[in-house]
Amino acid sequence: MLPASYRISRMQKTLQWFEQDIPLLNTRIKDLSAERQNSAKQFAAALIRETRAELERLLREHPECRAQARKRRVNRAD
Questions:
Q1: Is the pTM here over 0.70, yes or no?
Q2: How many CB atoms lie within 10 A of CB 3?
Q3: Residue 47 contacts by C-beta under 8 Å, 6 or more apart in sequence?
């Protein structure tokens, strides 16, 4: 089993990657029909929600990692 801090770190990176990909997603789907664009956007939103929920679950289960996670988030914002 992977350490909780590693799993949390990977989940944060994944969430950040998904969130940063939204503008690119919009570019990739612009030639699709409105229905398919909507479907792709809904799928991406659901993926982000589920990833965020999993990250929150991990942080609740491992409160000792919460300070480290906050520190990594602050460092990325710079």
A1: yes
A2: 10
A3: 18
